[in-house]
Amino acid sequence: MTPTGEFVKNLKDTPKHVLGSMLRVGHAPQTDRERSQSSFHNLFLHVQSVRTHRDSLRFNYTFGLGLILTASFILLTVTGILLMVYYKPSTELAYQSLKDIHYVVPAGRFIRNIHRWCAHLMVVAVFLHMARVFYTGSYKPPREFNWLIGMGLLVLTLALSFTGYLLPWDQLAYWAITIGANIANSPREVTDAIGITSWFDPGKFQKQLLLGANYVGEESLIRFYVLHVALLPLLTVALMGVHFWRIRKDGGLSRNEGVPVKPAQIAGRDVKVFEPTKTYGLMAVVRGRTPVVGRAPEGTVPSWPNLLWAEMAAFFFTIAVTLVLSYFSDAPLKELANPMVPENPAKAPWYFLGLQELVSYSAFMGGVGIPSIVMLGLGLIPYLDRDPRGVGVWFGGPEGKKTFWTSTLFGLASVLALLTFTVNYGWLRAWFPTIPQMFIIAINPGTVIVALYVAWSLWVLNRSRSIRMSAIALFTCFLAGFLVLTAMGSIFRGPNWHFYWWPSQWPTH
Amino acid sequence: MHEKPSRRRDFLGLAAIWSSVLATGTAVAGMLRLPKPAVLPGPLRVYKLGDPEQFAVGSVTRLEAANFHLFRDEQGFHAISSVCTHLGCIIAHTENAGFACPCHGSRFNEQGEVTGGPAPTGLPWLEISLSPDGQLQVNAEGQVARGSKFRV
After folding, report:
1. Contact B116 A430 (CB under 8 A)
2. Of A131, A219, A227, B111, which one's alpha carbon is 20 to 30 angstroms from that of A261?
3. Cβ contacts of residue A142 below 8 Å, gap of 6+?
4. Which residues contact A290 (CB under 8 A, 6 or more apart)?
C-alpha cells in the first residue's frame, strides 16, 4: 500500500478507531466476557459490579428508589448550574433575577420548575427509600454503616432543600431564614431557663455562624448560597460515593439469602456453586466474612445490559415525572421579602410543616431536641438490632407485618388523640399561666408523643422478645407521627397557627 | 538492652503521628475561625422619633421599620419590641387585647407578658431616652425592666 493510500484508509477508519479507543473493548459487547470487560474497563460503569443479582433487579423489592434519588440529584445538579447562570445572590438583586428567570430567560421558568419539582421528588423518595431499607431489614450487618451514610444523605437532602428555598429572597425565603436562624438560637431557651446564658450561649454562636450577623441580611444570603451551591452538594456527592461503594463491598443489595437461587448462566452453561479451594484468609486477600467468599455468582446476570436497563428506566421515569409536573405547575414566587410583615400563616414547604407544628409547642424541643432524639434513635437501630434473620424479607415475615399494622394503628391513634386534646384544651400554659418555661420545654405535646412511642416500642419488645419487632414498632410510630404532624401543619393550621378544618374557613382580613 | 532501639523508634513514630494530628487540628481550627464573624454588620438600632409631644397621651404607635410599638399614657412612654421571642416573627398588636404572633400562635398581653403559645419569655421593653437635640430616642438593642416608664 502506498503511503497516501494508507493515509486515506486511516482517515476513513478514524471514527471507528476513535470509538474503539474510547470504549477499550472496541465494539458493543457480544459475549459475557466482553460484557464484564465493558463494565470494568469504564470509569463510570466500574462503580457497579460486573454481575448483578436477579433479586436486586426486582422492581417490587427496591421500587427503584435509590436510582430515582441518584437521577434526581443529577437532574438537580444540571438544572442548578443552569439557574446559577442568571441568579444573583444579593438581597437587592436576587428577587429580580428570579423574576428574570421566570419571565425573560429562555426556558428559564421550565428549568426552575424542573429544579423545584425534582427537589420535592427527591425528598419524597429519600423518605420512601429509608422506609424500604428499614422494612426489608437491609440495615443489618454488614450494612450498618451504610445506614448511617444514608441518614447523612437524608439530612443533606433536607438541608439542600432548606437552603434552596431561601435563595429567591421572597417572603417565604426571608421568614424561613429568620425562623431557621432562631431555631439555631433556641438552645438559649434552655440556657435562659437555667440562667447560664451570660457565659455559655451556644444558641447565639450558631445563629451568628448561620447569619454572619445578628440580623438577616446580605451576609446571610451569601452564606446560604455557598452552602446550597458548593458545600452541601460536594458533601452529598462524597457521601453518595461512599454509599454506592459500601453497597458493593457489603455484598450488593440486601436479599433473602435463605431462598435457593437458580445457578448463573455464563455462555449458556450453568455455573456450579463451588466452595473455595484457596485459603483466601491466609493469602490476606480477605478478612472476616466477606459476602462473596465461598460463593459462585449464582443467581446473577451480567450488569451490562440488565442493570443498565433498570438504571435507564429509573432515570427516564424521574425525568418524565418532573417534566409533566413542571409543565403543569409553576414553582411559586411570593412577594418580595418584607422584614416588617410576615405572611399569616407563614408556612414552610410541606416536608418541614411537621417540624413547624412541633416548634409551635417549644422552639428548642421541636427544632433541636426531638429531631436529635429521632436521629439518634434511627442511627442506633442497626447497632441494637443485630439479629441476622429476616434480611431481604418485607417486615421480616408475618409477625413483623402484624407489628407494622398494630403500630400504625397505635401511632396514628395516639398522635391524633393528643392533637385533638391540644387543639381543644390547650396546653400547660393555658391552665397555669405562670408556669416556668423549663416545664414546657420538658413536657409538651411533642415530647409526650415521643414518650408514648418509646413506651409502645418497649412494650412490644417485652411482649415479642424481639429487638427487630420493637424497632419496627418505633419506626412505624414515628412514620405515622410524621405523616399526621405534616398534615396538621399543611392543612389544618391557619392564621395565627389556629386550627381550621379547611383553608376556606380562614378569616378574611 | 535489646528493646531500647525499638522503644526509641516507637517514641519517634508516636511523636510524629501526634505532632501531625496537632498540626492538622490547629490548622482546621484556624480555618474554622473564618466563618465566625468578628464584625457583626447590621443596621443601627437606635431610632430618633422626633418631638415627644407629637405622641398624644393614650396613643399607640407602630414603628414598622424599627419593629416596636411606642405607648404613651399618663405615666409616660414605653416601647415594646414587636419581634416574637419564640422564633423572630413580627407580632401584631390589637388595641387592649395584647399581641399575637402569626407564625406559631404566641400571645402576649398589653404589658408584653406571655399569655399563650410557645414563646419562652415576654416581649422586651426597650430603652427610651431624650437625645441631646430634644428628640425621643429608642434603643432597640437596650432593654429596661418591664413597667418602667420614661417621663419627658
Report:
1. yes
2. A131
3. A250, A251, A289, A291
4. A251
CA distance A316 to chain B (A): 40
Better-scored residue on pLDDT, A259 or A416: A416
Distance (Å) from the alpha carbon of B1 to chain A's nearest alpha carbon: 34
Specify the 3-state DSSP secondary structure of A440: helix
Cβ-Cβ contacts under 8 Å for A210 (sequence gap 6 or more)? A180, A181, A184, A220, A223, A224
Region of poorest pLDDT, from A32-41, A404-413, B97-106: A32-41
The reply to whether residue B65 touches residue A182, judged by beta carbons under 8 angstroms, is no
Cis amide linkage into residue A305, ω under 30° from 0 = yes
SS3 A90: coil
Q: Where are the alpha helices (DSSP H) in A227-365?
A: 232-249, 303-328, 353-359, 363-364
User: Is the model's pLDDT at B103 over the cut of 90?
Assistant: no
pTM: 0.90
Query: Do the Cβ atoms of B77 and B136 come closer than 8 Å?
Result: yes
Give the Å distances, CA to CA, from A107 to A103, A325, A332: 9, 15, 16
CB contact under 8 A, B114 and A429: yes
Q: Is A341 on the interface with B (CB under 8 A)?
A: yes
Higher model confidence: residue B42 or residue A75?
A: A75
Nearest CA in chain A to B114: A433
Cell numbers at A276, concatenated: 473455595
**What are the tens digits of pLDDT across the range A325-373?**
999 999 989 889 988 888 888 888 889 999 989 998 988 999 999 999 9
Tell me whether residues B117 and A360 touch, CB distance under 8 A: yes
d(CA A468, CA A484): 24
Q: What is the reported pLDDT for A136?
A: 93
Q: Residues of B with CB below 8 A from A340's CB?
A: 64-65, 67, 90
pLDDT of residue A304: 82
Position A60 confidence tier, pLDDT thresholds 50, 70, 90: confident
Burial A62-75 (b: 16+ CB within 10 A, else e): bebbbbbbbbbbeb
Strands B46-48, B136-144: pairing is: antiparallel
A219 close contact with B: CB closer than 8 A:
yes
Residues of chain B positioned with their CB less than 8 A from the CB of A183: 87
B31 touches chain A (CB under 8 A): no
CA distance A408 to A413: 8
* A291 pLDDT higher than 50: no
Q: What is the pLDDT of residue A294?
A: 46
Highest mean pLDDT: which range of A372-386, A423-437, B103-117: A372-386
Is residue A464 within a helix (H) or strand (E), and if so which, with residue range? helix A445-464
For residue A283, pLDDT over 60 is answered with no
Alpha-carbon dihedral B21, B26, B27, B33, rounded to 10 degrees: 150
Residue of A363, A429, A440 lying closest to B87 (CB–CB)? A363
The C-alpha atoms of residue A265 and residue A271 are separated, in whole angstroms, by 6
